[in-house]
Write a structure and sequence with these properties.
The complex is a heterotrimer of chains A (195), B (384) and C (175).
Chain A: H1 5-23, E1 51-55, H2 69-73, E2 79-85, E3 91-101, H3 110-114, E4 120-122, E5 138-139, H4 141-144, E6 145-147, H5 148-154, H6 156-183
Parallel strand pairs in A: 1-6
Antiparallel strand pairs in A: 1-4, 2-3, 3-5
Helix pairs in contact in A: 5-6
Chain B: E1 18-22, E2 25-26, E3 31-32, E4 34-40, E5 43-50, H1 58-63, H2 67-75, H3 82-97, H4 103-132, H5 137-157, E6 166-167, E7 170-171, H6 177-201, H7 205-211, H8 219-224, H9 230-234, H10 241-244, H11 265-289, H12 301-305, E8 315-323, E9 326-334, E10 340-346, H13 348-352, H14 356-360, H15 365-375, H16 379-383
Antiparallel strand pairs in B: 1-4, 2-3, 4-5, 6-7, 8-9, 9-10
Helix pairs in contact in B: 2-3, 3-4, 4-5, 4-11, 4-15, 5-6, 6-11
Chain C: H1 3-13, E1 19-22, E2 25-28, H2 34-43, E3 51-59, E4 64-72, E5 77-86, E6 92-94, H3 103-114, E7 117-119, H4 152-160
Parallel strand pairs in C: 2-5, 6-7
Antiparallel strand pairs in C: 1-2, 3-4, 4-5
The chains are: A alpha+beta (195), B alpha+beta (384), C alpha/beta (175).
């Protein structure tokens, strides 16, 4: 075998790739990259980035009940929650403060998995670069709250499944609440019927 | 002990050795790794690896987390192979807690870990050629293929590299038929790409001259120094944990373990190319017979919602897998609380560095770079 | 691999070694026996345990422990798990580097993170943490550095250079 034949064969490969990059579609050896800021690839539905909170109708009453499960389970402890109180200092089932430090968050998605109230989900936008790392990269409640429609927009199938489940639960609750009055019986006492 | 290299010509000429620090910021050290090298002219006299620049005491962090909370941290050990890192950890905890995994989940695990092997070996070959001076042509061809696999990972797990996909007793999400079809397409087209890649590289005279007989690792030294993975097999020792332990479902698939003859840098390169071909074989079989069924053991499904309730019984276990870089072992000690009492990682890249000095001595500086490249270290795993 | 068989084999060949079975592993009562036991397992024709997979330290509050996972590459069997316990105040275990080169970096790591000395190790230095750190970070009683407070050294340096340090940064000096 001639010395240099291997190099020549390699150069043929690069030549072939050079030519196909101009005349072929991307899946058959053509240009694979896109010019990022001008062109964008579609975001895959299951893609996850920093978390956001879902509200159903108005942002004042989010699904979140400030149970702090996500804050406890977060591996990096980047979530900080404080419960809201009414004027009589009685705790309410909604957060007064809900902060996520996204400089610490590592997008693992565990908050989304553990949330029992279908409230926190992983978001899509990934362009969060900022010149101020202290204030602008600490997301407060108002930055995090996004409507259910937005959730439907970024993740249609996931959001539809969640909505269907929530509706089923609600209907079950309703029918359970309606049943006793239908039969005419008084609702069962909480203490098991004991006086 | 490393064989020593004596400085030549000291009597004839007034020479002295030169001390050079490679790194910590040096593109060829693949991260923040430092080689303290003593040189006689261009020849290496001593070489001391210095590490720890990326140390974050992962083990101590993990001892303060729940078992599920550790899973995303394991992604960041060897950031090229998040799926196999997850698999090793999940298997160690499953052994400890006595959890079985449904068949479909086992198949998915095999598929994703073999895809991970493809990614790792592809990028290794690309980076090795970069170290050799073939700037960015081979690595961009490799990354073009890697990109397709990463897209699949994003589709199934939500993240390209930090997958966090496996759960104790199964996997997080199911594979849809469309994803399976994409996987099949990638697997079908991969051998064609490998042929092209090999035509570009394997017989290239420059690559052969630079790599053959450089950094020869003898068999006995390899075994004695606990070297594992492709580096060990390039020295001609048939030890693949997929074959030895037959964990997960690897006893169902037909594949061979490629071995090298000499144990030089070229063998280490070529063993990886051959391993990719074997991985494609496994993928073909697994994608063919993946059954329908559940993806998470129903016994552990509640723990995904409440990780703090997951308390493995008191005990300890050492789970190991054949990660693309070698034997990845997780040693977990449970004291019956939601947090592990002790959690240790046997990191293959860390231990493979033991022989770096031995196989570099007497070679030129430029050879040390490719020897380090062929050992395939990732600093996230070395320093932990 | 049956651990009881291994135990009786070692006790027969090396009289005087005291072994106890703890959770499928062999606890070597006197750590000084460790190199002899490992050397025997490596050379023995029945086991040929030629591959030291992993060494781990562990802190059990009353004592420190080293756990050795050994496999055989030739026979493809394993694991044999050995343990050696040592006290917390003056921890030391004989090094296995003369028998298994693979122990070199792992023992350095344990020395670094647990402070266990390995007698006979050729190059026992810190490997992951920085030189001059006076603590063993993986021990359970290790206190993490409080980032809000300044260390005594820094305060001394600042005082010398005429910088007034507010009292809220000084509290760690007493502790």
């Amino acid at each position: 075998m001639f010395f240099g034949l291997g190099v020549l064969r390699g150069l043929m490969v690069t030549l072939k790739n050079f030519v196909t990059s101009y005349f072929m579609p991307p899946d058959r050896g053509g240009l694979f990259t896109v010019e990022y800021p001008e062109k964008r690839l579609p975001v895959i539905e299951r893609f996850r980035n920093f978390p956001f909170l879902v509200y159903d109708k108005d942002p004042e009453n989010p699904r979140c009940v400030a149970c702090e499960i996500c804050a406890n389970e977060c591996p990096t402890k980047c979530i900080y929650i404080e419960k809201d109180t009414d004027p009589n200092k009685k705790p309410l089932r909604r957060p007064a403060i809900f902060d996520i430090d996204i400089t610490v968050c590592m997008n693992c998605g565990i908050c989304e998995e553990v949330c029992p109230f279908d409230s926190i989900y992983m978001d899509h936008p990934f362009e969060v670069a900022s010149s101020d790392r202290l204030e602008k990269l600490l997301f407060h409640k108002n930055d995090l709250l996004k409507s259910n429609d937005y959730f439907h927009k970024i993740r249609p199938t996931h959001a539809a499944a969640i909505d269907a489940r929530r509706r089923a639960v609600e209907e079950k609750k309703k029918s359970a609440a309606v049943k006793p009055s239908e039969t005419g019986q008084p609702p069962k006492a909480q203490n098991g019927g004991k006086p | 002990m490393p064989k020593s290299y004596t400085v030549q010509n000291t009597d004839l000429l007034d020479t002295q050795t030169l001390e050079v620090n490679f790194g910590p910021q040096h593109p060829s050290t693949h991260g923040v790794f430092r080689m303290f090298v003593e040189l006689d002219g261009e020849v290496i006299v001593t070489l001391k690896p210095v590490m720890g620049y990326l140390h974050r005491n992962h083990e101590q962090i993990a001892e303060n987390l729940t078992y599920l909370g550790i899973m995303p941290y394991t992604d960041r050990l060897d950031y090229f192979n998040a799926m196999t890192n997850n698999l090793g950890y999940a298997m160690a905890v499953e052994k400890l807690a006595g959890i079985t995994v449904p068949e479909r989940a086992q198949y998915i695990r095999v598929i994703v870990s073999e895809f991970t092997r493809l990614i790792n070996h592809l990028s290794l070959v690309g980076f090795l050629l970069n170290d050799l001076g073939a700037f960015f042509t081979p690595i961009l061809y490799a990354f073009r293929e890697r990109e397709k696999i990463l897209d699949v990972f994003e589709e199934i797990s939500g993240s390209r590299m930090m997958c966090n996909y496996l759960r104790f007793g199964g996997v997080k999400c199911d594979l849809s038929p469309a994803v399976l079809e994409t996987m099949k397409k990638i697997t079908r087209n991969f051998p064609k790409f490998l042929d092209e890649f090999e035509a570009l590289l394997s017989k290239n005279e420059i690559l052969c001259m630079r790599c053959q007989n450089v950094g020869v690792l003898p068999k006995e030294l390899a075994v004695n120094s606990s070297i594992t993975g492709p580096v060990l097999r390039a020295s001609g020792i048939n030890y693949d944990i997929r074959k030895v332990d037959r964990y997960s479902l690897y006893d169902r698939f037909r594949f061979r373990v490629p071995l090298g003859r000499k144990g030089d840098t070229y063998d280490r390169y070529y063993v990886r190319v051959l391993e990719m071909r074997e991985s494609v074989k496994i993928l073909e079989q697994a994608l063919q017979d993946i059954p329908v069924g559940e993806i998470l053991n129903p016994k552990t499904a509640p723990f995904a919602k409440a990780p703090r309730n997951f308390k493995p019984p008191v005990g300890e276990d050492y789970g190991r897998i054949e990660s693309p870089k070698g034997e990845l072992g997780y040693y977990v000690v449970s004291d019956g609380t939601p947090q592990p009492w002790r959690y240790h990682i046997r990191a293959p890249s860390f231990i493979n560095l033991t022989i770096l000095e031995d196989i570099c001595l007497g070679h030129k500086v430029a050879d040390a770079i490719i020897i380090l490249g062929s050992l395939d270290i990732v600093l996230g795993e070395v320093d932990r | 691999m049956n651990i009881a068989e291994v135990k009786s084999y070692i006790e027969k060949t090396l009289p005087g070694t005291k072994l106890t079975i703890v959770r499928d592993s062999l606890l070597i009562e006197n750590p000084a026996d460790l190199p002899r036991v490992a050397g025997l397992l490596k050379e023995s024709d029945t086991y040929r345990v030629d591959y030291l997979a992993s060494i781990t330290g562990a802190d059990y509050l009353q004592y420190l422990e080293c756990v050795y996972h050994l496999f055989s590459m030739e026979r493809k069997i394993g694991p044999v798990i050995l343990r050696a316990r040592t006290n917390r105040e003056n921890p030391s275990v004989p090094s296995l580097v003369p028998i298994y080169r693979g122990a070199e970096y792992q023992e350095r790591e344990i020395f670094d993170l647990f402070g266990i000395f390995f007698d006979g190790h050729p190059d026992l230095r810190r490997i992951l943490m920085w030189e001059g750190l006076n603590a063993s970070p993986m021990r359970k009683d290790y206190q993490q550095e409080d980032r809000e407070k300044l260390s005594a050294e820094d305060i001394r340096w600042l005082d010398e250079h005429g910088v007034s340090v507010p009292p809220e940064f000084r509290e760690s000096q007493q502790g």
